[in-house]
Specification:
Number of strands of chain B: 0
Low-confidence stretches of chain B: 100-128, 227-288
Oligomer: heterodimer
Number of helices of chain B: 21
Strand content of chain B: under 5%
Shape of chain A: rod-shaped
Structural class of chain B: mainly alpha
Low-confidence stretches of chain A: none
Strand content of chain A: under 5%
Order of helices and strands of chain B: HHHHHHHHHHHHHHHHHHHHH
Radius of gyration of chain A: 25 Å
Largest interface: A-B, 28 and 22 residues
Mean pLDDT of chain B: 73
Distance between the termini of chain B: 49 Å
Radius of gyration of chain B: 22 Å
CATH architecture of one domain in chain A: 3 Solenoid
Number of strands of chain A: 0
Mean pLDDT of chain A: 96
Shape of chain B: globular
CATH class of one domain in chain A: Mainly Beta
Chain lengths: 330, 386
């Protein structure tokens, strides 16, 4: 089928074109709202600025297609193959992208607000500046999760997204908006979260081993049992964060703000905590073995039963702190 | 691309020992890393070899190289100085695009004007003068413009001093030739503007033709980039970049912006010459000084309109009218919507002026109604923060 035939048939009221062979077709700016193209072959097609709102594109082959600026709001692309497609500035608001293969695609400045991305593979995709507010990437089964490995989410907006169990290993999330995002159980190993805003984010049981969080805002975040060994969090803001049982051994938290944080039972062994602010932090039974607390501010902190014996306490301010033996330091 | 090792080494060595090595590296660095870096220690942390290799990889043809280098130079506040530096880069790195024998090397010395080597069919591209290459590029870009007929009519009328409605007659002259006539009849950019406006303002579709005149002026801009090498030596003051969008951050992953208002840069240069400044007043922008939430502004736009169309309109206002060329697409991909919005806001123009410019840009786009709607959404969003 060629372009003319498709346009003519659609104009005469026909909407179902399931399984059509349309590789490389040029449909720039075409109005095909609500069209059914499930299992169609559209690889390499040019769909620049086309209107495909509510289109059914399930299992379609869109490998290498140009969908820049296309309107795909509420379209169903579940199971479609969008590998290496160009989706620059695409509109996918409320679209169904479940189990869609979007690896290595360009999604620069794309609008994915409220899209369903459960089980989608976005590894290596470029999502710089994309808006993913309220997207659903929630892991439902152990072996079924959204893959964002090594994806570029620089300055992306993910506020309020459900990213439970998402694989974000080695992803670039620097400068991203991750306010109130659910990253429970997420794999963030070696991810770059420098300067990211994670205020109020849920990171319970998340794996942040080797991640970079320099200058990140984690105030009020929940990091219970988070694995943060070897993380770089210089100058990070953890004010009022809940970090009980967090594993922070060998992490670099120098100059970090941990005031009012609840860190009971956390492991801070061998961590670099120089110049960190722990004012009024709850540090009950925290493990500080060989931690470097040079110049740290621990005023009014609660250090009941904390292990401080082998820590470097040079220049530490402990005024008003409850010491490991229960005494208040005057 | 297979590079001849000896030629490559020779080019690297020549650039490394050139008296303007730092400026040469700064220019190449900016093309490769997409941001301007003034700190010599950062620029020098990357070897010239690595930079040239990256440059060749990014710009696979000598034409692309020439165009990109001059396009960048135009945006700097010292185009004259960097014009000379650009020429050295194009001449030297240009050799790597062919198997030009090493005997042809170093045809341009910094103080002497370019001497063209004899044309050799195999190396025509390399031996074309920069002006010819730029001319071909401009002709191609204009030829793809949706308003090509009106463009041709205005160029013809200005070049030949008579109005011609028959496009076939205009075509018989050739667009390239007409542009060249226009360039030769108008030795300065100001003169070109006067000539085009004189015709455009006397046509019944005045507004449209003035916009077309602006487009021609903009496109022909690179033909007016001064590459007078002797002039470059007049300046012994330090290059002072007062580019509002340039970050001094070493983070190469940030897709940074460095386009500055051409008129503003001229003023800056003049001021600097009168009063040499000892330390460069680099206006850095670390992103934290914004008095608005960029994510909210972004959301206000993408929620209600097409983000790509919004980018195209902003691009047209900031740089030049959108002509859908490959170059335009690739430049657009190097900016985020956020970058473009930030640039607009940094101009500190009144909202009314931004509005006028956005609507004017939208009107020139193929899908006018949709584009006007998008322009309206941008204005609405900006209204909340200006």
């Amino acid at each position: 089928m060629n372009k003319k035939e498709l346009i003519d048939r659609y104009a005469s009221g026909e909407t179902i074109f399931s399984g059509s062979k349309l590789p490389g077709i040029n449909l720039v700016g075409a109005d095909l709202i609500g069209i059914t193209l499930n299992e169609a072959d559209l690889h390499g097609a040019n769909l620049l600025f086309s209107y495909l709102n509510r289109a059914i594109l399930t299992q379609a082959n869109l490998v290498g297609a140009n969908l820049s600026g296309a309107s795909l709001n509420q379209a169903d692309l579940s199971g479609a193959d969008l590998r290496s497609a160009n989706l620059h500035g695409v509109l996918l608001q409320g679209a169904n992208l479940r189990e869609t293969d979007i690896t290595l695609a360009i999604l620069l400045d794309a609008n994915l607000i409220g899209a369903d991305l459960r089980g989608a593979d976005l590894s290596g995709a470029n999502l710089t500046g994309a808006c993913l507010r309220g997207t659903n990437m929630r892991q439902e089964k152990k072996s079924y999760n959204t893959n964002l490995q090594a994806a570029n989410l620089y300055k992306a907006d993910l506020q309020g997204a459900n990213m439970k169990g998402v694989d974000l290993a080695r992803a670039n999330l620097s400068g991203a908006n991750l306010k109130e995002v659910n990253l429970r159980d997420a794999d963030l190993r070696k991810a770059d979260l420098s300067g990211a805003n994670l205020k109020g984010a849920l990171l319970t049981d998340a794996n942040l081993v080797g991640a970079k969080l320099v200058g990140a805002n984690l105030s009020g975040a929940n990091l219970v049992r988070a694995k943060m060994m070897h993380t770089e969090v210089m100058g990070g803001n953890f004010q009022s964060a809940i970090m009980t049982h967090a594993m922070l051994s060998r992490a670099n938290l120098s100059q970090a703000n941990l005031s009012l944080a609840r860190m009971n039972h956390a492991d801070l062994s061998r961590a670099n905590l120089s110049g960190a602010n722990f004012v009024e932090a709850e540090l009950i039974e925290v493990f500080f073995a060989r931690a470097n607390l040079t110049g740290a501010d621990l005023r009014n902190a609660n250090l009941t039963r904390a292990e401080l014996m082998s820590a470097n306490l040079t220049g530490v301010n402990l005024r008003g702190a409850i010491m490991p033996d229960g005494r208040v330091n005057n | 691309m297979q590079l001849s090792a000896s030629v490559f080494d020779e080019v690297v060595q020549y650039l490394n020992t050139h008296e303007e090595t730092l400026r040469i590296k700064k220019l190449i660095f900016c093309i490769c890393k997409k941001y301007w870096e003034n700190d010599p220690s950062i620029v020098n942390s990357v070897s010239t070899e690595a930079l040239i290799q990256e440059l060749i990889y990014l710009k696979p043809s000598s034409e692309q190289l020439t165009f990109t280098v001059y396009k960048l130079v135009k945006t700097l506040n010292r185009p004259k100085v960097y014009g000379a530096v650009a020429k050295v880069i194009i001449d030297e790195v240009g050799k790597l695009y062919s198997n030009t024998p090493a005997t042809l090397l170093h045809k341009t010395e910094f103080v002497t004007s370019a001497v063209e080597t004899k044309p050799n069919l195999e190396f025509v591209e390399q031996n074309l003068s920069e002006e010819q290459i730029i001319l071909v590029k401009i002709t191609n870009d204009l030829a793809n413009h949706p308003e090509i007929e009106r463009l041709k009519k205005l160029i013809f009328a200005t070049a030949k001093n008579k109005w011609e409605n028959n496009v076939e007659i205009i075509n018989s002259y050739g667009l390239k030739k007409l542009i060249w006539t226009l360039r030769q009849n108008n030795p300065t950019k100001l003169k070109l503007k006067e000539s085009l406006y004189r015709i455009a303002e006397n046509i019944n579709k005045k507004t449209l033709y003035v916009a077309i005149a602006d487009l021609i002026i903009d496109q022909m801009d690179s033909l007016y980039v001064p590459i007078n090498l002797n002039e470059a030596q007049v300046y012994d003051t330090k290059i002072i970049h007062v580019q509002p969008n340039v970050k001094s951050s070493a983070n190469a992953s940030e897709q940074d912006t460095l386009i500055i208002d051409y008129n503003e840069s001229q003023i800056v240069t003049e001021l600097n010459l009168v009063k040499p400044v000892t330390s460069p007043p680099i206006t850095t922008n670390n992103g934290s000084k914004r008095d608005y939430d960029p994510f909210e502004l972004h959301l206000d736009i993408v929620q209600f309109t097409n983000p790509l169309r919004a980018k195209i309109i902003l691009y047209s206002v900031l740089f030049h009218p959108w002509d859908q060329s490959g170059q335009d697409w690739s430049i657009l991909s190097s900016y985020t919507l956020d970058d473009l919005l930030e640039q607009i806001l940094q101009k500190h123009c009144p909202l009314k002026e931004i509005e006028t410019r956005l609507y004017a840009a939208a009107k020139l786009l193929p899908d006018q109604d949709t584009s006007l709607q998008t322009a309206g959404i941008i204005v609405q969003a900006l209204q909340r923060i200006i």
